[in-house]
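hey
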Protein backbone atom coordinates (compact mmCIF):
# COMPACT_ATOMS: atom_id res chain seq x y z
CA UNK A 1 0.00 0.00 0.00
CA UNK A 2 3.03 2.28 0.47
CA UNK A 3 5.77 1.92 -2.14
CA UNK A 4 8.88 4.10 -2.14
CA UNK A 5 11.73 3.56 -4.57
CA UNK A 6 15.19 5.14 -4.60
CA UNK A 7 14.25 8.30 -2.72
CA UNK A 8 16.88 11.03 -2.60
CA UNK A 9 16.53 14.41 -0.94
CA UNK A 10 19.08 17.15 -0.32
CA UNK A 11 18.84 20.60 1.24
CA UNK A 12 20.86 23.66 0.36
CA UNK A 13 22.96 24.65 -2.66
CA UNK A 14 24.62 21.88 -4.65
CA UNK A 15 28.18 22.75 -3.62
CA UNK A 16 27.38 22.27 0.09
CA UNK A 17 24.13 20.33 0.07
CA UNK A 18 23.03 18.30 3.08
CA UNK A 19 21.93 14.85 1.91
CA UNK A 20 18.94 13.91 4.07
CA UNK A 21 18.05 10.73 2.15
CA UNK A 22 20.27 8.56 -0.03
CA UNK A 23 18.30 6.00 -2.02
CA UNK A 24 15.58 4.92 0.41
CA UNK A 25 13.39 2.09 -0.90
CA UNK A 26 10.62 0.44 1.15
CA UNK A 27 7.42 -1.49 0.51
CA UNK A 28 4.81 -1.55 3.27
CA UNK A 29 1.85 -3.91 3.04
CA UNK A 30 -1.62 -3.83 4.50
CA UNK A 31 -2.13 -5.54 7.87
CA UNK A 32 1.26 -4.61 9.29
CA UNK A 33 2.37 -1.91 11.72
CA UNK A 34 5.81 -0.72 10.64
CA UNK A 35 8.01 1.29 12.97
CA UNK A 36 10.48 3.89 11.74
CA UNK A 37 13.51 4.36 13.98
CA UNK A 38 16.59 6.50 13.70
CA UNK A 39 18.71 8.98 15.63
CA UNK A 40 18.19 12.71 15.28
CA UNK A 41 19.16 13.83 11.79
CA UNK A 42 18.81 10.31 10.36
CA UNK A 43 16.22 11.27 7.75
CA UNK A 44 13.01 10.15 9.47
CA UNK A 45 11.21 13.49 9.19
CA UNK A 46 12.25 13.89 5.57
CA UNK A 47 11.02 10.36 4.82
CA UNK A 48 7.62 11.09 6.33
CA UNK A 49 7.30 14.40 4.47
CA UNK A 50 8.08 12.66 1.19
CA UNK A 51 5.63 9.81 1.88
CA UNK A 52 2.84 12.26 2.73
CA UNK A 53 3.53 14.59 -0.19
CA UNK A 54 4.70 17.48 1.97
CA UNK A 55 8.02 17.44 0.10
CA UNK A 56 9.01 16.38 -3.40
CA UNK A 57 11.98 14.04 -3.78
CA UNK A 58 15.00 15.07 -5.83
CA UNK A 59 14.84 11.57 -7.30
CA UNK A 60 12.67 8.50 -6.79
CA UNK A 61 8.96 7.66 -6.61
CA UNK A 62 6.30 7.30 -3.92
CA UNK A 63 3.09 5.36 -4.52
CA UNK A 64 0.20 5.44 -2.02
CA UNK A 65 -2.67 2.99 -2.56
CA UNK A 66 -1.63 2.66 -6.19
CA UNK A 67 -1.39 6.42 -6.83
CA UNK A 68 1.86 8.23 -7.59
CA UNK A 69 2.03 11.03 -5.03
CA UNK A 70 3.72 13.42 -7.45
CA UNK A 71 1.62 12.69 -10.55
CA UNK A 72 -1.70 12.31 -8.74
CA UNK A 73 -1.24 14.09 -5.39
CA UNK A 74 -4.92 14.73 -4.65
CA UNK A 75 -5.97 11.07 -4.82
CA UNK A 76 -2.79 9.83 -3.13
CA UNK A 77 -3.17 12.22 -0.20
CA UNK A 78 -6.85 11.32 0.13
CA UNK A 79 -5.71 7.78 0.97
CA UNK A 80 -3.52 8.96 3.86
CA UNK A 81 -4.43 9.67 7.46
CA UNK A 82 -1.52 11.71 8.78
CA UNK A 83 -0.82 12.57 12.41
CA UNK A 84 2.14 14.98 12.53
CA UNK A 85 4.34 15.32 15.59
CA UNK A 86 2.89 18.77 16.32
CA UNK A 87 -0.63 18.50 15.01
CA UNK A 88 -2.28 21.83 14.07
CA UNK A 89 -5.56 22.32 15.95
CA UNK A 90 -7.97 25.25 16.25
CA UNK A 91 -8.23 26.02 19.98
CA UNK A 92 -11.54 27.88 19.59
CA UNK A 93 -13.25 24.88 17.95
CA UNK A 94 -14.77 21.85 19.66
CA UNK A 95 -13.62 18.29 18.82
CA UNK A 96 -16.95 17.61 17.11
CA UNK A 97 -16.73 20.85 15.13
CA UNK A 98 -13.12 20.22 14.18
CA UNK A 99 -13.91 16.71 12.93
CA UNK A 100 -16.81 18.12 10.90
CA UNK A 101 -14.39 20.63 9.39
CA UNK A 102 -11.85 17.92 8.57
CA UNK A 103 -14.54 15.66 7.13
CA UNK A 104 -15.63 18.46 4.79
CA UNK A 105 -12.04 19.12 3.73
CA UNK A 106 -11.57 15.44 2.91
CA UNK A 107 -14.59 15.51 0.60
CA UNK A 108 -16.78 13.15 2.63
CA UNK A 109 -20.43 13.12 1.52
CA UNK A 110 -22.68 15.13 3.88
CA UNK A 111 -24.99 12.18 4.46
CA UNK A 112 -22.35 10.05 6.20
CA UNK A 113 -20.51 12.75 8.15
CA UNK A 114 -22.52 12.71 11.38
CA UNK A 115 -22.22 8.95 11.69
CA UNK A 116 -18.49 9.04 10.94
CA UNK A 117 -17.90 11.82 13.47
CA UNK A 118 -19.77 9.98 16.23
CA UNK A 119 -17.90 6.73 15.52
CA UNK A 120 -14.50 8.45 15.44
CA UNK A 121 -15.16 10.36 18.66
CA UNK A 122 -16.00 7.08 20.37
CA UNK A 123 -13.08 5.19 18.83
CA UNK A 124 -10.58 7.80 20.07
CA UNK A 125 -12.30 8.06 23.48
CA UNK A 126 -13.12 11.77 23.21
CA UNK A 127 -16.91 11.67 23.03
CA UNK A 128 -17.13 13.02 26.58
CA UNK A 129 -15.38 16.26 25.55
CA UNK A 130 -16.91 16.62 22.11
CA UNK A 131 -18.49 20.02 22.93
CA UNK A 132 -15.60 21.55 24.88
CA UNK A 133 -13.22 24.02 23.27
CA UNK A 134 -10.03 22.30 22.15
CA UNK A 135 -7.95 25.03 23.77
CA UNK A 136 -9.23 24.01 27.21
CA UNK A 137 -8.36 20.32 26.81
CA UNK A 138 -5.31 18.59 28.26
CA UNK A 139 -2.40 17.71 26.01
CA UNK A 140 -3.46 14.06 26.00
CA UNK A 141 -6.99 14.92 24.87
CA UNK A 142 -5.65 17.26 22.18
CA UNK A 143 -3.46 14.46 20.88
CA UNK A 144 -6.47 12.17 20.64
CA UNK A 145 -8.40 14.88 18.79
CA UNK A 146 -5.54 15.08 16.30
CA UNK A 147 -5.59 11.30 15.87
CA UNK A 148 -9.35 11.41 15.30
CA UNK A 149 -8.81 14.00 12.57
CA UNK A 150 -6.40 11.63 10.83
CA UNK A 151 -9.01 8.85 10.98
CA UNK A 152 -12.19 10.75 10.13
CA UNK A 153 -12.17 9.90 6.40
CA UNK A 154 -11.36 6.21 7.04
CA UNK A 155 -8.07 6.20 5.09
CA UNK A 156 -6.38 2.93 4.01
CA UNK A 157 -2.96 4.33 5.00
CA UNK A 158 -2.05 5.78 8.40
CA UNK A 159 1.22 7.64 9.02
CA UNK A 160 1.71 8.50 12.68
CA UNK A 161 4.59 10.69 13.82
CA UNK A 162 5.18 10.43 17.61
CA UNK A 163 1.53 9.45 18.22
CA UNK A 164 1.80 8.97 22.01
CA UNK A 165 3.07 12.48 22.77
CA UNK A 166 1.23 13.77 25.83
CA UNK A 167 -0.53 10.50 26.64
CA UNK A 168 -0.38 8.87 30.05
CA UNK A 169 0.48 5.12 30.38
CA UNK A 170 -3.18 4.04 30.32
CA UNK A 171 -3.84 6.13 27.20
CA UNK A 172 -0.70 4.73 25.55
CA UNK A 173 -2.02 1.21 26.11
CA UNK A 174 -5.40 2.20 24.66
CA UNK A 175 -3.76 3.77 21.62
CA UNK A 176 -1.62 0.66 21.08
CA UNK A 177 -4.76 -1.49 21.05
CA UNK A 178 -6.43 0.93 18.64
CA UNK A 179 -3.45 0.87 16.27
CA UNK A 180 -3.50 -2.94 16.27
CA UNK A 181 -7.21 -2.87 15.45
CA UNK A 182 -6.78 -0.30 12.67
CA UNK A 183 -3.87 -2.23 11.12
CA UNK A 184 -6.04 -5.24 10.35
CA UNK A 185 -7.15 -3.65 7.09
CA UNK A 186 -4.78 -0.72 6.77
CA UNK A 187 -1.13 0.10 6.24
CA UNK A 188 0.31 1.77 9.33
CA UNK A 189 3.67 3.53 9.58
CA UNK A 190 4.67 4.77 13.02
CA UNK A 191 7.67 6.96 13.78
CA UNK A 192 8.83 7.37 17.37
CA UNK A 193 11.85 8.17 19.51
CA UNK A 194 10.62 5.74 22.19
CA UNK A 195 12.04 2.28 21.51
CA UNK A 196 9.69 0.45 23.89
CA UNK A 197 6.70 1.93 22.05
CA UNK A 198 7.95 0.70 18.68
CA UNK A 199 9.01 -2.67 20.07
CA UNK A 200 5.60 -3.36 21.61
CA UNK A 201 3.45 -1.96 18.81
CA UNK A 202 5.20 -2.81 15.54
CA UNK A 203 5.44 -6.06 13.57
CA UNK A 204 8.26 -4.69 11.43
CA UNK A 205 10.95 -2.11 12.06
CA UNK A 206 12.96 0.08 9.70
CA UNK A 207 16.15 1.64 11.04
CA UNK A 208 17.44 4.71 9.20
CA UNK A 209 20.78 6.40 9.81
CA UNK A 210 22.73 8.83 7.66
CA UNK A 211 19.84 9.02 5.20
CA UNK A 212 20.07 5.30 4.42
CA UNK A 213 18.05 2.25 5.38
CA UNK A 214 20.33 0.26 7.70
CA UNK A 215 17.97 -2.54 8.73
CA UNK A 216 14.53 -3.96 7.98
CA UNK A 217 12.98 -6.80 9.97
CA UNK A 218 10.94 -7.91 12.94
CA UNK A 219 12.15 -6.96 16.44
CA UNK A 220 13.36 -10.54 16.98
CA UNK A 221 15.20 -10.61 13.65
CA UNK A 222 17.04 -7.37 14.43
CA UNK A 223 17.95 -8.57 17.93
CA UNK A 224 19.25 -11.84 16.46
CA UNK A 225 21.32 -9.87 13.96
CA UNK A 226 22.90 -7.93 16.82
CA UNK A 227 23.60 -11.19 18.67
CA UNK A 228 25.87 -12.39 15.88
CA UNK A 229 28.52 -9.84 16.84
CA UNK A 230 28.07 -9.73 20.61
CA UNK A 231 28.75 -12.27 23.34
CA UNK A 232 25.92 -13.90 25.26
CA UNK A 233 26.20 -13.44 29.02
CA UNK A 234 25.08 -16.09 31.49
CA UNK A 235 24.37 -15.65 35.19
CA UNK A 236 23.98 -18.44 37.71
CA UNK A 237 23.49 -18.42 41.46
CA UNK A 238 24.19 -21.69 43.23
CA UNK A 239 25.09 -23.16 46.60
CA UNK A 240 27.63 -25.95 46.91
CA UNK A 241 30.37 -27.17 49.21
CA UNK A 242 33.04 -26.12 46.74
CA UNK A 243 33.28 -23.67 43.86
CA UNK A 244 32.47 -24.92 40.36
CA UNK A 245 34.27 -22.00 38.72
CA UNK A 246 36.97 -24.11 37.09
CA UNK A 247 34.43 -26.56 35.61
CA UNK A 248 32.32 -23.73 34.20
CA UNK A 249 35.34 -21.80 32.90
CA UNK A 250 36.42 -24.85 30.87
CA UNK A 251 33.11 -25.28 29.06
CA UNK A 252 33.47 -25.03 25.25
CA UNK A 253 32.52 -21.55 24.03
CA UNK A 254 33.12 -19.78 27.36
CA UNK A 255 35.64 -16.95 27.11
CA UNK A 256 35.37 -15.33 30.57
CA UNK A 257 34.14 -16.45 33.98
CA UNK A 258 33.93 -14.53 37.27
CA UNK A 259 32.51 -15.59 40.61
CA UNK A 260 31.30 -13.65 43.62
CA UNK A 261 30.43 -15.01 47.05
CA UNK A 262 26.92 -14.26 48.33
CA UNK A 263 25.26 -14.69 51.76
CA UNK A 264 24.09 -18.14 52.92
CA UNK A 265 26.95 -19.89 51.09
CA UNK A 266 25.62 -18.99 47.66
CA UNK A 267 27.87 -17.98 44.77
CA UNK A 268 27.03 -15.87 41.73
CA UNK A 269 28.92 -16.63 38.54
CA UNK A 270 28.99 -14.57 35.35
CA UNK A 271 30.03 -16.27 32.12
CA UNK A 272 30.69 -14.72 28.72
CA UNK A 273 30.41 -16.81 25.57
CA UNK A 274 31.87 -16.34 22.11
CA UNK A 275 29.69 -14.21 19.77
CA UNK A 276 27.23 -16.40 17.91
CA UNK A 277 27.80 -19.39 20.19
CA UNK A 278 24.96 -21.86 20.72
CA UNK A 279 22.82 -21.69 23.86
CA UNK A 280 25.01 -22.96 26.72
CA UNK A 281 22.41 -23.13 29.49
CA UNK A 282 22.17 -26.92 29.36
CA UNK A 283 25.97 -27.47 29.61
CA UNK A 284 26.08 -24.94 32.47
CA UNK A 285 23.22 -26.71 34.23
CA UNK A 286 24.99 -30.05 33.78
CA UNK A 287 28.16 -28.61 35.36
CA UNK A 288 26.08 -27.56 38.37
CA UNK A 289 24.43 -30.94 38.99
CA UNK A 290 24.40 -31.61 42.71
CA UNK A 291 24.25 -27.90 43.58
CA UNK A 292 21.28 -25.92 44.80
CA UNK A 293 20.64 -23.57 41.85
CA UNK A 294 18.25 -20.66 42.33
CA UNK A 295 18.98 -18.81 39.09
CA UNK A 296 20.27 -19.56 35.61
CA UNK A 297 19.70 -16.97 32.91
CA UNK A 298 21.08 -15.98 29.56
CA UNK A 299 21.21 -12.33 28.50
CA UNK A 300 21.26 -11.69 24.79
CA UNK A 301 21.37 -8.48 22.77
CA UNK A 302 17.97 -6.85 22.34
CA UNK A 303 16.40 -4.41 19.89
CA UNK A 304 18.04 -1.57 21.81
CA UNK A 305 21.47 -3.14 21.15
CA UNK A 306 20.55 -3.66 17.51
CA UNK A 307 19.54 -0.02 17.18
CA UNK A 308 22.79 1.20 18.72
CA UNK A 309 24.80 -1.12 16.49
CA UNK A 310 22.99 -0.33 13.25
CA UNK A 311 22.63 3.42 13.77
CA UNK A 312 26.24 4.03 14.73
CA UNK A 313 25.76 3.95 18.48
CA UNK A 314 23.25 6.81 18.77
CA UNK A 315 21.07 6.51 21.86
CA UNK A 316 17.29 6.30 21.78
CA UNK A 317 14.76 6.90 24.53
CA UNK A 318 13.02 4.17 26.46
CA UNK A 319 9.93 4.40 28.63
CA UNK A 320 11.00 1.45 30.73
CA UNK A 321 13.96 1.04 33.06
CA UNK A 322 14.66 -2.44 31.78
CA UNK A 323 18.31 -3.32 31.32
CA UNK A 324 19.68 -3.31 27.80
CA UNK A 325 19.76 -7.09 27.72
CA UNK A 326 16.75 -9.33 27.99
CA UNK A 327 17.16 -12.31 30.33
CA UNK A 328 15.95 -15.76 29.40
CA UNK A 329 15.31 -18.07 32.32
CA UNK A 330 16.05 -21.76 32.43
CA UNK A 331 14.72 -24.39 34.77
CA UNK A 332 17.15 -25.28 37.50
CA UNK A 333 18.76 -28.74 37.57
Amino acid sequence: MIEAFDLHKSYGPAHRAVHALRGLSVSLRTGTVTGLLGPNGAGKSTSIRLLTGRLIADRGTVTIAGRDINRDPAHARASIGYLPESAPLYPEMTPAGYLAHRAALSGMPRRGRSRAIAATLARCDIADVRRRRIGTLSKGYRQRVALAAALIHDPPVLILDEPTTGLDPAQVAQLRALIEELARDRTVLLSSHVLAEVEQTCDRILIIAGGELRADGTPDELATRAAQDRPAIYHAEYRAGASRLSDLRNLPGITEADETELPADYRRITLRAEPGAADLREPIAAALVGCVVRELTRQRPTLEDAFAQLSGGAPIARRTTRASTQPESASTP
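The radius of gyration is 25 Å. The longest helix spans residues 110-123.
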